[in-house]
Design a protein that fits this description.
Elements (H helix, E strand, L loop, with lengths): L1 H11 L1 H13 L2 E2 H8 L3 H13 L3 E6 L2 E6 L5 H7 L6 E5 L2 E5 L3
C-alpha cells in the first residue's frame, strides 16, 4: 500500500505529470532541458525528478557531468497490477481523454 501511495502522490503533481509526459514523448532528457520546457529552476526540477525516481517511475544514466532521465519501463506495472488485477488492457477515462495501459 505504501508503494502505491507514493506512486499516486508522484503523478498527482502537475509538474511531475508533465515531466512524465515529456519523457514519454522524447525518450530521454536532462535536467536543463526539462527545466527549460517547464520554465522551472534546476533545483525545482531535480526535486520533481527525485520524487519520480523514488516512486520507481523514472530512471537515469550519467553521461559526463549530466544525468539523463527516462521512463522506467516497468515503473507502472505494480500500479496497473493493483488497479486492474484481472489483466488485459487497462483504460482510465479522464473527461474527454482516455489513458490506456498495455504491457508489451
Amino acid at each position: 500500500m505504501r508503494k502505491l501511495t507514493d506512486v499516486l502522490k508522484s503523478i498527482a503533481d502537475e509538474n511531475r505529470l508533465r515531466i512524465l509526459l515529456m519523457l514519454a514523448e522524447s525518450g530521454e532528457m536532462n535536467v536543463s532541458a526539462i527545466g527549460d520546457a517547464l520554465g522551472q529552476s534546476q533545483p525545482a526540477v531535480s526535486h520533481h525528478l527525485n520524487q519520480l525516481r523514488n516512486a520507481g517511475l523514472i530512471e537515469f544514466r550519467r553521461d559526463g557531468k549530466f544525468n539523463f532521465y527516462a521512463l522506467n519501463p516497468t515503473g507502472l506495472h505494480e500500479l496497473i497490477d493493483q488497479l486492474f488485477p484481472h489483466g488485459g488492457p487497462a483504460r482510465i477515462p479522464l473527461g474527454g481523454v482516455e489513458i490506456a495501459f498495455k504491457r508489451k
